[in-house]
Design a protein that fits this description.
Elements: H1 18-24, H2 73-141
Length: about 140
């Protein structure tokens, strides 16, 4: 469904001659879809006493729509127990992993403290050596 908009050319837009209005009003230039091509936009009227729910449909047993996804309470209890067990196992695994990480962090922090102490001792030793060398070089120059 195409709609055509007619605008006069720029050269004729300022002129108000009768030929312009005649050309615009010709039926060959204007195209509008016929009524038979348009769909009705009428409203759907439902009486007040009509049922508000759709009637239940019966399907043959081999139809997939007839299969109910509902489970019995025993099945749901089993699913609940298995889900709880799997969640508990996963939580225990995560807790043990967290404990292992905490132990590793403690070990690394102890190693870091030890290395800091050794680094300080080395810096002190290097400082003492440079001081003693500078004293020796000053005393030898005199």
């Amino acid at each position: 469904m195409a709609t055509t908009f007619l605008t006069p050319p720029a050269s004729q837009s300022n002129s108000n001659t009768s030929t312009d209005t005649d050309e615009l009003s010709t039926p060959s230039k204007l195209t509008r879809p016929r009524l038979s091509q348009r769909k009705s936009s009428g409203t759907m009227i439902i009486p007040r006493d009509a049922p508000t729910e759709a009637p239940a449909q019966e399907f043959p047993p081999e139809d997939a729509r007839a299969m109910s996804p509902r489970r019995s309470s025993e099945e749901t209890d089993k699913m609940l127990v298995s889900a709880r067990l799997s969640i508990e196992r996963r939580a225990q695994d995560m807790q043990s992993g967290l404990a292992a990480i905490a132990t590793q962090i403690e070990t690394v922090s102890k190693n870091c403290e030890s290395l800091d102490r050794q680094n300080q001792a080395l810096q002190d030793a290097i400082g003492d050596m440079t001081r003693s060398l500078s004293r020796e070089s000053l005393s030898s120059k005199k």
